[in-house]
Amino acid sequence: MLLTCWVLALIAVVAVSAAVFGFAALARGLFPEARSPEALGLGIFTSVLLVTGIAGAYNVLFQSALVFGGLAFLALSPEYWRGRLKDLRRHLPRGRDWLWLGFPAVYFVTRFFSCGLPQQHSDPLYYHLSAPQLWAELGRITITPEHPSFAQAALWETLYGIPQLWFGTRGASAHVITQLYGQWMHMFWGQGGTLLLAALLLARLAPPLERLPGLTVFVAWLCTTQPVFEWLGCLAKNDYVLCVFVLGAVLEALDERWWLAGFFIGLAYSTKVLAAWAALALVVFIPPRRWPRYVAGAALSAAPFLLRNLIATRNPLFPNLDDVLGPHWVSSWWMNHNATFGGGPRFDPRMFRWLSEQMFMKALPKLLLGAGAAAFAVEAWRRHSGKSRETKLAGLHRRRWLVFLGIQFVLAFTMLRPLADGRYGNYVAILMTVFASACVLREAARDRRVWRYGAPVLLALGALVNSPVDVLWKIPRDYWFEPAVHYVEQFHPCYDVQRWIQINVPPKDQVLFFAEKEQFYLDRDWETVSEMKKWDELLTPIKTADELFEVLRGRGYRYAHFSPQAGGYPGVIRPYWNTLVAREREAVYRSPTSLVFKIY
Fold first, then answer.
1. CB contact at 8 A, 562 and 583
2. Per-residue pLDDT tens digits for 388-409
3. CA neighbours within 13 Å on the CB side: how many for 44?
4. Which pLDDT score is estimated for 449?
5. Which pTM does this prediction carry?
6. What is the DSSP string of 125-193?
C-alpha cells in the first residue's frame, strides 16, 4: 500500500534529517558565529557523503555509519538543541503576530501531502533519482559515458541514494519509497530552509521586522513561493537547496564572515552550477583584500564536486567544455539542444517577454517588485532631500545591493535563452523580491497608519499562493490504501511500457531506449542515447528505419523503444521518424506513449 511507503519514507526522512542536525551541532561547535548552522551542517554532511562515495564507500554499511554518526553528534550535543529550542522560543510570534502564519501553515500542510505522491516530472526520474540509483548499484559515486547528464546530480543528490541503499534499487515499491523520501527532503530542507534563510535576510535588511517574526516569515514566504518555481518544492530536485546555500552565502557576507560566505557559495555551485552568478556578484560586498578568504572557502567546499568530475572524466567542469577538455562523451545534438536554453552572454530582446511570462509570471512577484521600486524611490528622495537620518554607510549599503542584484540579473538575462524555464532564475528572483519587500517594510515602519491599514492588504497577498487544500482528503481517499504504484500507473506515461518490458523481455535481451527521460522505474540497465557521442556518430549516417534496425541488430540489440509522444528523439532520427511511426503495426508493444519493436 502507498501508506506503507509513507511510513518507510518518513522513517528515512527523520533518520537522515536527524543526522543533518547532528552535523549542524558539529558546525555550531566549529563555527559558533554562523548565521545558519543547519544549512552549514547540511553542506558538511552531504560533502562527507560525496567524498566517501568518490572513495568507493557508497554502500549500505558505510553510509549508514555516517547517518548514525550524525545521530551520535546530535545525542552528544544537548547544548546545541537546547540552545536552538531557546532561540526558537525567543523568536516565536506574540499576540496578533501569530495571524501572519496562517497562510504559510496551510500551504506547507498541503505541500506535505502533495509530496506524498510520486510526481511524474521527468527530471527526477531522469537523473536526480536515477544517478544515485546507479551510484548505489556501483558502490561508488562517479560519472559514466552511458549517462553524461548524471553529472548534473551532485552534492544534494548524495542524500537520495541513502534509502536506495536501505530499501533496494529495484522494484516498484522501493522506487516509490525513494521518490517520496526525495520529495519530502526537498520540501523540508530545500523549500523550508529557503523560507527561513529568506526570513533572516529580510530581518537583516529591514530591522523593524526583528520585533515581528510572524510578519517576517509571511513576507519571506511570499518571496520564496513565486509561481514560476514554487511547484519545484514537491519534486525530488535540487533547486531550492541551491537557494539555501546562496542565501546562506549572502547572510555570511553581510556579517563579514568572508570564509563562510565562500564556503556556502562553493556548496551552492556543487549543487547547481547556476550559483556562478551569485559567486561573481557577491564580491560587491567583500573588500578586495578579503577576496582570498572568500575564494579559499569556495575552493574548499567545491573541491569534492570538482574532484568527482576530474577523476571520472579528467574534466572538472564536465559536462561543460566536453568538446574542449574531454572526455568527448557528449553528442553534438545534445550540446546544440542545451545551447537553445543557455550559453555564453548574448542579448536577445525576446528576453524582456521571458521576464514577464517566465521569471516573474503572474501577479505576486510583480506586485512585490513594483511596490519595492516605489518604496526605494521614496527612500532615495528622503536621503537626497535631507529628510532621512540614515548614515552614509547605509546609503552605500543600498547601492551595493543594487549592484549585487544587477550583476545577477544581467547574467541571468544574457546567459539564458527565451526557451529556458524561468525557474533557472529562482534565487535571483528571491533576492530581488526580498530586497523590494524590505524597502516596502522599512518605509511602512515610519508611519503607524501604514501598518494599520496596509496589513490587511499585505495579508491578502497570501491568497495568491497556490495551496491545494483538496489534497488533504483526496490523497487518503484515493491512494493511501491502494497499491504503492496506483498513482504511478495512472500518471507516469512510461510506466506501462517499462512494466511490460520487465515482464516480457528476458534480462539477457538488450533493449535500446530512444526516449529515456523517465527511466527511474525501469529495472534494467539503460543508456542515455541522445546524449552519447558514440550513438551520435553511429546514428548520423543512417537514413532509413531499415538501416537503423540493421545497425542495432549488428550491435546485439533485440528490442528498440521509441516514443510517439516525444517525437523523433534524438534529433538525428527525425528525418525518417514518419517511417518508424508508419510501422507501428509491427510493434510488439504499442501505446500512445510508446512503440517497442523486436529486431529479428
1. no
2. 666 554 556 778 899 999 999 9
3. 24
4. 73
5. 0.95
6. IIIITHHHHHHHHHTS----TT-GGGGG--TGGGGGGHHHHHH-SSSHHHHHHHHHHHHHHIIIIIIIH
